[in-house]
Amino acid sequence: MTAKKLGLKQRYAHMTRGLDWETSYQPIDKVFPYDQFEGIKIKDWSAWEDPFRLTMDAYWKFQAEKERKLYAVLDAFAQNNGQTGISDGRYMNVLKLFLTGISPEEYQSHRGFAFIGRHLRGVGPRVAAQQQSLDELRHVQTQIHTISHYNKFFNGMSEFPTMHDRVFYLSVPKSFFDDARSAGPFEYMIAIGFAFEYVLTNLLFVPFMSGAAYNGDMSTVTFGFSAQSDESRHMTLGIEVIKFLLEQHPDNLPIVQKWVDKWFWRGFRLLGLVAMMMDYMLPKPVMSWKEAWEIYFTEAGGALFQDLARYGLKMPKYHEVATEAAEHVGHQLYGLLYQLCHVAGLHAWMPDAKHMDWLSEKYPNTFDKYYRPRFEMWAQMEKEGKRFYYNGLLQLCHTCQLPMTFTEPGDPTTRCFRETQFKGNRYHFCSDGCKDIFDNEPEKYVQAWLPIQQIFQGNCGGPTVPDVLNWYQIKVGVDNAEYVGSEDHKLWESWKQDTAVSKAG
User: Fold this and answer.
1) What is the number of other CB atoms lying within 10 angstroms of the CB of residue 396?
2) Can you give the pTM of this predicted structure?
3) Please, which pLDDT band fits residue 1 given cuts at 50, 70 and 90?
4) How many CB atoms within 10 Å of residue 350?
5) Which of 236, 378, 385, 489 is positioned for an S-S bond with 51, CB 3.0–4.6 A?
6) CB 171, CB 122: distance < 8 Å
């Protein structure tokens, strides 16, 4: 008699929960040593609903099909010289920021979820984390492959792994993931699975992908679409984990709330780099950072936390401060990049009159009053042949590692400056949110690797700017400084001339 074919539900159960086993010659706590020290109480691991609903063989099949289509589009883009179809050569600096700041964190996320897939004792989360780990590895591979085409023509991308580990502003995303990966497994799930992948992910990927589409970069759009179905599953896992923890025991609520507060603020500071990109670096801007924040956090995030209120979870601490700061953060950070691009791995430029008018329209309460005069002053200096570069070393916030450039809530004319003392040493912070995070775990954050402090300590190649840039592997006059007149700019202008001649003739 032929064996009855298993139904999808039975097959799924066998291929996921059926993979679990009882330990026989080692105590279970010795096999899973890391899922108790954080204080989270789990009564029933089987209550974890597998949000992916995928067996591994189905996973391989879906991903292989996506890979086949993705690489066909990328090959066609390269063969048709798609790099000449982007909106402007300045757009490449968006991809340089993405490749050096975001792609390496996909790999960090891969390693983090691989750890979770090993060290949570419930089989449901183990399978889900394993699949997300593979997703993240695939994302970093496809991003590097896509952007590698541009590396044949434009500067500043060839040494991206070294830059990620050394260049000062890239310590912002790096320290975020170092912090998450050195936390316990449940905190990692809240940090990356919930705060980053669920609450804040649309503020990262939607602006980059819509910006790429609007600026003619179809290769980046393609890998974005290919990753989007994975991101949807990751969001599902993020919401599942927080509900699971809150339903398991009432004692979990204060621990989870503290993690949500912490990782919301860390994510908000990290996404300041995206705010700068959206407001200033896209030659054809899509929407302002303020508009994106209203759609993806104020509206979508507000609805999410309304739903989670039934568990007693509140909106993240300082969310009102973050919403008020959405008026300012893009201007303040791009102002810094403009002054510091001679020590960065990408170019910056003065926004033209049309772009400044767009900023006035998007930020009617703040841009003309606080930021336009600053840019007009720098524009006048450029006109007089005195392009301004800041030549000092910046003080960094000890938590988020961004320069201390942000202003007081409600007062954009006064710099926000907080400090605390720990074991006789003084530490500085850009905000109350960053100070709170340090004060809760000072033993962890005093070990942070801050790039400016490392220069002072003689660990970055030498005491001079050329020494440090050489250690960063930034080619002076090629990868850095003003865009106008750079090799990238000259190449782009030559392509434009060729196109004009071709059309004329």
Assistant:
1) 24
2) 0.94
3) low
4) 19
5) 236
6) no
Across 169-177, average pLDDT? 95
Helical H segments across 215-352, by residue range:
218-248, 252-270, 272-276, 289-293, 300-308, 319-325, 329-340
Q: If 0-12 CB within 10 Å is exposed, 13-18 middle and 19+ buried, where does residue 54 land?
A: buried
- For residue 125, name the pLDDT band (cuts at 50, 70, 90): confident
Chain segment 389-405, per-residue pLDDT in tens: 999 888 999 999 999 99
For 280, the token pair is 């200033």
DSSP string, 22-47: --SSS-HHHHSTTSSTT----S-GGG
**Would you say the C-alpha torsion 369, 372, 378, 381 has a positive or negative sign?**
negative
Burial of 19: CB neighbours in 10 Å, binned 0-12, 13-18, 19+: exposed
Distance CA 90, CA 95 (A): 10
Percent of the chain clearing pLDDT 90 (strictly above): 72
Q: What percent of the chain has pLDDT over 70?
A: 98
DSSP collapsed to 3 states, 384-433? CCCCCCCCCCCCECCCCCCECCCEECCEEEEECCEEEEECCEEEEECCHH
List the beta bridge partners of residue 482. Answer: 348
**pLDDT digits 0-9 by tens, 449-460:** 999 999 999 999
Pull the structure tokens for residue 366.
């703040």
Structure tokens at 338: 């403009």
CB-based contacts of 416-421 (< 8 A; 24+ apart in sequence): none
Across the range 190-209, mean pLDDT stands at: 83
- Taking a C-beta distance cutoff of 8 angstroms, is the pair 462, 468 a contact? yes
| Listed residue (313, 109, 123, 132) closest to 237, CA to CA | 132
H/E run at residue 411:
strand 411-415
Phi, psi of 384, deg, nearest 5 = -90, 10
Of 205, 238, 228, which Cα lies nearest the Cα of 66? 228
For the chain, the 3-state helix, strand and coil shares in percent, each to the nearest 5, are 65, 5, 30
Nearby residues of 4 by Cβ (< 8 Å), 6 or more positions away: none
User: Could you tell me if 275 and 329 are in contact, meaning their C-beta atoms sit under 8 angstroms apart?
Assistant: yes
- Check pLDDT > 90 for residue 122: no
**Closest to 257 (Cα-Cα) out of 39, 32, 34, 36:** 39
Q: Which two tokens stand for residue 140?
A: 């970093």
